[in-house]
Write a structure and sequence with these properties.
alpha+beta, five-stranded antiparallel sheet, Ribosomal Protein S8, Chain: A, domain 1, 6 helices, GMP Synthetase, Chain A, domain 3, 2 domains, three-stranded mixed sheet
């Protein structure tokens, strides 16, 4: 007997980053409010079969999965108008055959914000492992910073197919990591300084002087 197809619609949406395209589905692709970015096949292996398959396209440089969408980053070998329809149809067909896009997220791929989200969802109070590259100690300001980013910033950057995650706080500086369409976007610096930095400084003037993007 043939496997029953899962009815799924997918449409492509441009992002502010010309190297990325957002593919939006009419169903949830990752649960629990989590997000994950893969930069190569090795990172995707055992975590997301969809991302593994997408890396088989030679022009795919990165895959970011959040909520009901997949953001794909391409190299410079082809323009989007040559590949977007093929990629959209491939993602739709894959989702019709597979219910789960992300089966698990390894600890080293989880942002600090994702760890906090997981703790809130599970009700777990103990420390959960986050990125192995994390070097920041917890601070009294972390919870409020994460709340402000989730409340005011996350919806906007998700609309653009990306994420800006809290990494750590030190000496009145907030460090964030840009993922998906926000990574390498020409307008990301303006978003960081003109948007996020001004917001956090206005909300927490006694604690924050600067917001800095860094890799984790």
């Amino acid at each position: 007997m043939d496997k029953k197809k899962i009815p799924t619609a997918v449409y492509a949406e441009m992002t502010p980053n010309p190297a990325t395209m957002k593919f939006v589905a009419d169903r949830l692709l990752i649960s629990g409010g989590l997000q994950v970015e893969y930069k190569n096949t090795q990172e995707a292996k055992g975590s997301s079969a969809l991302a593994e398959e997408l890396f088989h396209f030679p022009f795919v440089k990165g895959v970011f999965i959040s909520s009901n969408y997949v953001t794909v980053t391409r190299d410079e070998s082809l323009d989007w108008d040559m590949i977007v329809m093929q990629l959209r149809e491939y993602i739709r067909e894959w989702l019709m055959d597979n219910e789960v896009a992300v089966s698990t997220i390894p600890a080293h791929l989880m942002s600090r914000a994702d760890v906090e989200t997981q703790k809130n969802v599970t009700g777990q109070k103990d420390h959960l492992p986050s990125s192995s590259n994390e070097v920041f100690s917890p601070s009294p300001w972390d919870e409020e910073i994460i709340h402000l980013l989730n409340e005011y910033v996350r919806p906007a950057v998700e609309q653009d197919g990306g994420a800006i995650d809290f990494v750590g706080y030190d000496n009145k500086k907030v460090y964030v990591n840009m993922r998906g369409a926000c990574s390498g976007c020409p307008s990301s610096t303006a978003t960081l300084k003109g948007g996020i930095e001004n917001l956090l400084k206005a909300k927490m003037p006694e604690a924050i002087e600067e917001v800095i993007a860094r890799s984790v």
